[in-house]
């Protein structure tokens, strides 16, 4: 498995995670996290992805893997890990794409916080500790995101995040780099199942429109694997249509509500 970047924490979050693991602090007193992972024929990568969740400095409450019609060994691999790690559960997906599959997980997720990870990506070992430390410092915050490091077959330490990389574009808040309070989905709803692509863009637009408190960490919180089958390795006409439809629906919603002001740029959400 490629080596995932790790960092030493100076905010105490890592120490608290260690106390929970050691049993000196009750898990019932700690924030609970549900991780949702859709998979369709991800046998090459899913074990590595799950291992980075299991290796988190902060333990997760549950890992909900939604098998969205795999015809390879994905389900067998997940079930093998689940036999050793009870936090892992395998659920059947509706075989209609990642948005509907994630909704299967959202409907039963019991965690106070929700994280998403695609079956071919990885999490840095301190990802959840970073997010939870930020939530602890600013209890009013409902969404905490971070930077993405891209890799292919081999991975070294992720590059230092560059605050200048945050622009007005929409692509800088990645679903897998973000941790959400469960209540966010109570407010804005789940993934729109009419989207085959850009369902994550649509979700983020609804979150921004609702003015839900959000920040972007100055740290890498997702390692995104580039490969021939990854959805961003090519950009089809259908993907472009869904992306443009997400933008248009956002504009229509804002016009109907009487708010025609542009959404604030993402760079304004960057932590100092």
Could you characterize what this model shows?
The protein has 272 residues and is an alpha/beta fold. It has one domain: Spore Coat Polysaccharide Biosynthesis Protein SpsA, Chain A (Alpha-Beta Complex). It has helices at 13-22, 46-54, 74-82, 98-108, 127-137, 182-188, 199-209, 237-256; strands at 33-39, 62-67, 88-92, 113-116, 143-151, 179-181, 214-225. α7 packs parallel to α8 (237-256). It is globular and about 50 Å long.
For the biggest sheet, the summary is: 7 strands, mixed
By CATH, the topology is Spore Coat Polysaccharide Biosynthesis Protein SpsA, Chain A
Low-confidence stretches: 8-12, 19-27
If classified by CATH, what would the architecture be?
Answer: Alpha-Beta Complex
What Rg, in angstroms, do the CA atoms define?
18 Å
Number of strands: 7
Tell me the β content.
15-25%
Q: What is the straight-line distance between the termini?
A: 33 Å
Order of helices and strands: HEHEHEHEHEEHHEH
Strand order within the widest sheet? Answer: 3-2-1-4-6-5-7
Count the domains.
Answer: 1
Number of continuous helical runs: 8
CATH superfamily: Spore Coat Polysaccharide Biosynthesis Protein SpsA, Chain A
Shape field: globular
What do the pLDDT scores average to? 85
Question: Helical content, roughly?
Answer: 25-40%
What's the level 1 CATH class? Alpha Beta
């Amino acid at each position: 498995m490629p080596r995932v970047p790790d960092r030493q924490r100076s905010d105490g979050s890592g120490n608290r995670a260690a106390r929970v693991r050691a049993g000196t602090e009750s898990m019932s007193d700690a924030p609970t996290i549900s991780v949702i992972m859709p998979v369709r024929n991800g046998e090459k990568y899913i074990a590595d992805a799950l291992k980075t969740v299991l290796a988190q400095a902060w333990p997760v409450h549950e890992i909900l893997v939604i098998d969205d019609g795999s015809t390879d060994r994905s389900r067998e691999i997940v079930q093998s890990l689940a036999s050793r790690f009870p936090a892992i559960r395998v659920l059947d997906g509706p075989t209609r794409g990642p948005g509907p599959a994630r909704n299967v997980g959202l409907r039963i997720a019991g965690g106070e916080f929700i994280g998403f990870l695609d079956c071919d990506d990885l999490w840095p070992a301190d990802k959840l500790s970073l997010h939870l430390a930020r939530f602890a410092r600013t209890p009013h915050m409902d969404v905490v995101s971070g930077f993405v490091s891209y890799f292919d077959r081999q991975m070294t330490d992720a590059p230092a995040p560059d605050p200048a990389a945050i622009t007005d574009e929409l692509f800088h808040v990645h679903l897998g780099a973000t941790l959400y309070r469960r209540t966010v989905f109570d407010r804005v709803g789940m993934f729109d199942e009419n989207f085959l692509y850009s369902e994550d863009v649509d979700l983020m637009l609804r979150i921004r429109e609702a003015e839900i408190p959000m920040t972007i960490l100055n740290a890498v919180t997702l390692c995104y694997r580039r490969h021939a089958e990854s959805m961003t390795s090519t950009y089809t006409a259908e993907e472009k249509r869904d992306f443009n439809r997400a933008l248009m629906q956002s504009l229509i919603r804002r016009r109907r509500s009487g708010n025609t002001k542009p959404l604030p740029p993402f760079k304004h959400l960057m932590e100092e």
